[in-house]
């Protein structure tokens, strides 16, 4: 009797198809990496030309269209203030909304409703957020263009991101911790403030940093709310300010090569700020991750 | 007895809620509910105030807003319509989606099923970096590098494939619908790839192993066990990417030639979008002009709302995707 093993070599067609798909999948990844490398390479290469002390410490005041020099100090100041103000508005609201969804919502109709609209809010185009602040704050209430108006529009873009990331972190907090606290007679709100939030703290901080990094690069809403200025304006509540993304946009729509150079350096500065925030966020989450502790 | 205790059934629930109230839970609960309601109020306010500020401009319009192609709201007799802008927005976004989705699905499969486990998370992070680059930087890159670079390939397409209407036309430029769509495609790729990756990772492991045990090749396993499971997730991801592409402003504002025509010739100097027009036209807009831009923003808001709602409804129907939706 001869025993036949059931295992036969793979037919040519099946193997060829498998290898072809493998090649396509690797190719897709390579294609996705090409623009990233190209963008980063050009930003670094062209941005370093003007990345000097003058750029970081001077504004564009009295710099004519054909003049070299000038800098983005006014824009950097503006961006930092606007993003800080936006965070001060968006983080408490986002945090408390997430607390409601996780701790109080319990599948109630209102909580499902809010949860759905948080998702929808994530998809609101940034320019629409800018238009809203323009229509509401500047046209209806008659407020001036200012850094604060820009911060309002940025906060609208930040809120849903903060809610989602915080919500995810709160859901990771083990229920036993809450129950232990209740068993000791601690009221629910003190349990949330003293037990749940501290446990999720690093995760929440990471989420907030990522949200900040996301809005720091937004240009469109600022265009409609902060307007333009070439001078330093350190007061975010009065008069037009500048923002780093706006600066890049403004300089890159000018025809002169020196302006394009400034735009690249502005882009480099902006990417450095965003990457720094991203890195800090990753470090915080890595430093306190349960996997590392366990 | 029980009649004296309002709105609750059974004794313990009442005493517990009374206990909570006595310990200051009320204010905190009020704050957190209030924050949620503020979010809802903002969404409502966006719609209301855009409508309110759009109405005067729409009344001053001497043409039909939905069908008119030209955009001249700053004239003494304002003539403007959303026609050409909406066309450009939809066509460029769909083109971006067509370019981006296959690559993004490939990237997602690479990270979820092909790359070595140790490398996968790092490579995933590298793709996520694409999303961390601010859109104005893509715009600068697009206008200084991609626009001149695309001239060659565009001429090639026009020379050899002009019989396809998309690639026809006499004048070929770098600042075209095709270049703008390409930049949009790059910008939405990380979004589609990230969601698809999460969904593919959640494909049932047992079915994958069963397919492999029966002698399936890796591709056959993916086709049988991963793709059917992931299809709704990929559709959702594509819709979310589409919504993002439609609202993208600055990158395309620098690239679009800002014409007000309707043409499928994606290599010729035409193309514009609602968002790009707002960014380019806001500086010199009169009060009526601002109203007109707000009206166009309202249209954009409604379109993206519809697209995003569709995406969320697809994902909400499937409980197993719960984590990928975030």
From TrEMBL, chain A:
<dbReference type="InterPro" id="IPR035906">
    <property type="entry name" value="MetI-like_sf"/>
</dbReference>
<feature type="transmembrane region" description="Helical">
    <location>
        <begin position="83"/>
        <end position="102"/>
    </location>
</feature>
<keyword id="KW-0472">Membrane</keyword>
<feature type="transmembrane region" description="Helical">
    <location>
        <begin position="145"/>
        <end position="163"/>
    </location>
</feature>
<dbReference type="Pfam" id="PF00528">
    <property type="entry name" value="BPD_transp_1"/>
</dbReference>
<keyword id="KW-0813">Transport</keyword>
<feature type="transmembrane region" description="Helical">
    <location>
        <begin position="263"/>
        <end position="284"/>
    </location>
</feature>
<dbReference type="InterPro" id="IPR000515">
    <property type="entry name" value="MetI-like"/>
</dbReference>
<keyword id="KW-0592">Phosphate transport</keyword>
<dbReference type="GO" id="GO:0005886">
    <property type="term" value="C:plasma membrane"/>
</dbReference>
<keyword id="KW-1133">Transmembrane helix</keyword>
<comment type="similarity">
    <text>Belongs to the binding-protein-dependent transport system permease family. CysTW subfamily.</text>
</comment>
<feature type="transmembrane region" description="Helical">
    <location>
        <begin position="114"/>
        <end position="139"/>
    </location>
</feature>
<dbReference type="InterPro" id="IPR051408">
    <property type="entry name" value="Phosphate_transprt_permease"/>
</dbReference>
<keyword id="KW-1003">Cell membrane</keyword>
<feature type="transmembrane region" description="Helical">
    <location>
        <begin position="23"/>
        <end position="44"/>
    </location>
</feature>
<protein>
    <recommendedName>
        <fullName>Phosphate transport system permease protein PstA</fullName>
    </recommendedName>
</protein>
<feature type="domain" description="ABC transmembrane type-1">
    <location>
        <begin position="76"/>
        <end position="281"/>
    </location>
</feature>
<dbReference type="GO" id="GO:0005315">
    <property type="term" value="F:phosphate transmembrane transporter activity"/>
</dbReference>
<keyword id="KW-0812">Transmembrane</keyword>
<comment type="function">
    <text>Part of the binding-protein-dependent transport system for phosphate; probably responsible for the translocation of the substrate across the membrane.</text>
</comment>
<feature type="transmembrane region" description="Helical">
    <location>
        <begin position="195"/>
        <end position="216"/>
    </location>
</feature>
TrEMBL record, chain B:
<feature type="transmembrane region" description="Helical">
    <location>
        <begin position="30"/>
        <end position="58"/>
    </location>
</feature>
<feature type="transmembrane region" description="Helical">
    <location>
        <begin position="288"/>
        <end position="315"/>
    </location>
</feature>
<keyword id="KW-0813">Transport</keyword>
<keyword id="KW-1003">Cell membrane</keyword>
<dbReference type="GO" id="GO:0006817">
    <property type="term" value="P:phosphate ion transport"/>
</dbReference>
<comment type="similarity">
    <text>Belongs to the binding-protein-dependent transport system permease family. CysTW subfamily.</text>
</comment>
<keyword id="KW-1133">Transmembrane helix</keyword>
<feature type="transmembrane region" description="Helical">
    <location>
        <begin position="172"/>
        <end position="195"/>
    </location>
</feature>
<dbReference type="GO" id="GO:0005315">
    <property type="term" value="F:phosphate transmembrane transporter activity"/>
</dbReference>
<keyword id="KW-0812">Transmembrane</keyword>
<dbReference type="GO" id="GO:0005886">
    <property type="term" value="C:plasma membrane"/>
</dbReference>
<comment type="function">
    <text>Part of the binding-protein-dependent transport system for phosphate; probably responsible for the translocation of the substrate across the membrane.</text>
</comment>
<feature type="transmembrane region" description="Helical">
    <location>
        <begin position="123"/>
        <end position="152"/>
    </location>
</feature>
<dbReference type="InterPro" id="IPR000515">
    <property type="entry name" value="MetI-like"/>
</dbReference>
<dbReference type="Pfam" id="PF00528">
    <property type="entry name" value="BPD_transp_1"/>
</dbReference>
<keyword id="KW-0472">Membrane</keyword>
<feature type="transmembrane region" description="Helical">
    <location>
        <begin position="78"/>
        <end position="111"/>
    </location>
</feature>
<dbReference type="InterPro" id="IPR011864">
    <property type="entry name" value="Phosphate_PstC"/>
</dbReference>
<feature type="domain" description="ABC transmembrane type-1">
    <location>
        <begin position="86"/>
        <end position="311"/>
    </location>
</feature>
<keyword id="KW-0592">Phosphate transport</keyword>
<dbReference type="InterPro" id="IPR051124">
    <property type="entry name" value="Phosphate_Transport_Permease"/>
</dbReference>
<dbReference type="InterPro" id="IPR035906">
    <property type="entry name" value="MetI-like_sf"/>
</dbReference>
